[in-house]
Design brief:
Layout lengths: L4 E3 H6 L4 H7 L7 E4 L2 E3 L7 H12 L4 E2 L1 H7 L11 E6 L10 E6 L5 E4 L2 E4 L1 H11 L3 H13 L5 H10 L6 H14 L1
Parallel strand pairs: 5-6
Antiparallel strand pairs: 1-3, 2-3, 4-5, 7-8
Length: 185
């Protein structure tokens, strides 16, 4: 993991004055602000991984990447990157999302794994979080089928997670799982 993404407060704690940070983040400068209070110490466009690290830095230490980005990091790189980075945060946390981030509060924090310095929701939860947000039925079916084919989760595990979680948005993933069960017989 590199230190190219850093919180402004961390730089200031090491003695870098705020006016120097502002100067370096001006247009054409060597740094850029990715999210409020989060910098990329480079002038090049940020990669998806840098965006993910910035999102986690912005959301705080208990936040977890979920959805398609978590699945991509855990073995499904063929899934297209979604327009928004989906993070879960504890229900007690009130951090607001941004144009780049979907911050969802949860009373059921997922199991996590860490890859390349990123805190990721375990695949079963990530797949269902992505499926709940996917409006297109064929894309939802493909997403769940891909996770199952890759061995990242099982139908039984997905059903158990659906039963344990919020019922909001669960109907569409549940219908997709019923279809997949029929196809897997």
């Amino acid at each position: 993991m590199t230190t190219d993404v850093i919180k402004t407060a961390e730089l200031e704690a090491t003695g870098v004055p705020g006016h120097v940070i502002d100067l370096r983040c001006r247009p054409g400068g060597p740094w850029q602000r990715i999210l409020p209070g989060v910098l990329l110490l480079s002038a090049t466009p940020p990669t998806r991984a840098q965006h993910l690290r910035a999102a986690l830095a912005y959301a705080g230490p208990e936040a977890v990447v979920t959805g398609v980005d978590a699945l991509r990091a855990q073995g499904l790189p063929e899934l297209p990157a979604p327009p928004l980075i989906h993070l879960l945060q504890p229900a007690t946390r009130r951090r607001a999302g941004t144009a780049q981030l979907l911050l969802e509060r949860t009373t059921r924090p997922p199991g996590t794994t860490t890859r390349d310095g990123l805190r990721l929701a375990e695949p079963t939860r990530a797949a269902l979080d992505a499926a709940r947000r996917e409006p297109h039925p064929l894309h939802r079916h493909h997403l769940l089928a891909s996770a199952l084919r890759a061995g990242l989760c099982t139908v039984a595990g997905l059903e158990a997670e659906l039963d344990a979680g919020s019922k909001r948005g669960a109907a569409a993933p549940r219908a997709a799982l019923r279809t997949l069960k029929l196809l897997l017989r």
